[in-house]
Amino acid sequence: MKNMIKQVVKQKLKTLTVDELISYANTYNVSITPKQGEQIIAFLKETDLNPLDEQDRMKALKKLAQITDPQTAQKVNKIFHGIIKENGLSHWF
Fold it and tell me: Which GO biological process annotations does it have (predicted)?
C-alpha cells in the first residue's frame, strides 16, 4: 500500500502547477511568490527523490534552499506537512 501512495504522491508532485502550489500555500498560510512557485515546480518536475523518505525529503529541501532560499524551502516543508496531515497520512511520516 505504501508503494502505491508513494507513486500517487510522486505523480502529483510531477504534475503540480504553480497556481495549485500557490493555492496550497494560501491554504496553509504560507506566502509564496509566483517566481518562487516556478522555481519550486521546476525542481519538483526534475527530481526523482522520494518525498515519503525522510532522508530524500531533507535532500530535496536542501536543494530547494540552494535553488531558492532557506525560507522558501521551509515554506515548502510547511505546505507538505499540512497536506500530509490534512489527508490523514501523518502516521507514515
Answer: methylation
